[in-house]
Amino acid sequence: MPGTVASLDPNPPTLPLSxxxxxxxxxxxxRRDNLARWPTGARVDVEEAAAFHKTLPAHKRLPAVLRRAVxxxxxxxxxxxxxxxxxMQTELMRTLDRDGMADIVPTTTxxxxxxxxxxxxxxxxxxxxxxxRSMLNGFPLxxxxxxxxxxxxxGIEKPAIVLSxxxxxxxxxxxxxAGGYTGYLGSGIAYTVxxxxxxxxxxxxxxxxxxxxxAALYQxxxxxxxxxxxxxxxxxxxxxxxxxxxxxxxxxxxxxQGVRHYGLELGQCLHLVQDAAAIRACxxxxxxxxxxxxYTDVFTPVTSLHWMGAWPADEAQAAALIGYGGTLAAxxxxxxxxxKSTHEAIGIPTPQANAEGLxxxxxxxxxxxxxxxxxxxxxxxxxxxxxxxVRAVVDRVLEMGDGDVAVGTVRAFAAGVMDIPWSPNRQxxxxxxxxxxxxxxxxxxxxxxxxxxxxxxxxxEEKLRRRAERERVPFDHQLAVGSVYELSEPLSRLMPAxxx
Length: 500
What we know:
By secondary structure, this protein is of the alpha/beta class. Helices cover 50% and strands 8% of the residues.
């Protein structure tokens, strides 16, 4: 694996920020400069890669597998996972495929790769090989390059997806897609506000416009690839409407670049009715806004994510969250569920623990088959409430950009019209605060400057005040803080045993 970085163009070609598709000639220059940044980029050839993709059987192509799952009403399983060396990653992916019965097999990149520190990633590979254990928290996909990725794809019998975890995705997307991965996770808004401090919203959007334009380029060569919006990985709680607002905006940005197969992710709230309502509202709202922009051919499967907040260290409690997460996804009608393991609170799981989390989830999906909540008054109430919140904000974002999604998004974050709880990014006001209500739903305690309708906020306040009164605590920000850590508490505190 090479270890030198090519010199960069100090003045890469750019246009004023816009949601318009990147012109072909400009994109060709952008790709040339991007691929020159690390020696493995020289192996990337879209025509050759497209020909390789066409040799993959349907059961190893994620777009085809997802379309079939939706048609059959199935909920697929997909874990996370990545190790430092090719041998370790090969073992992991085979274990997840065979022992875990994963429907979609992941490759999570390491933190150095996510931050484009490829020299440090190379050192991590070498140290891992020397010590015989992974010294990185993921797979350094760029360092290994196209042929190593194809070896990973050859070792499994399921479709594979790159879990990028980055606001700087351009080189990992090129290597991953050329290497035979048929899915790529990440988006310009969600990852920028979840993972970065200094990266601007504009930079994040531009970076993923590149990835989306790349997926569209493969489409032009007759290869459909899966792009996916990642939800939020802030480790806190996110109200469904805020997650869906971001889904809609990231989706519209991707559609403008030519993407026609785009998945949406929603972190679980851990309330059966609210999670089912969120999945349905997300699916319907995304298609509603696509139609407004004239798109009628974009496929938008919804993925449900196992609980994204703090996890309990007790493995029995963690196992309950895993099983319940499978039920939430199945009952909500999600197309897939991204799983976790009982090691979540401890660190990176072993391949075996990861596989066990998959099987637990799969069993929960099986026993929940056919259960739906549509028509239940509480469910319809939540769907309507979520839609009202989403439309109020997204419509304002579009107004602020005069119909341009990219421009409107940047302006909306600057004004606080679009906001994310506890975001580390300096360009996000993070004035909005969520908390769990008396029934366990995630509500909005303080909307900040987001234009949520007054009567909607009255509903949130009433439900949160009931919790404060029941628990005899002040109605203030501590409701929000406590909600973040609540489920990681020992069971003896969450639900103490009755005593005589």
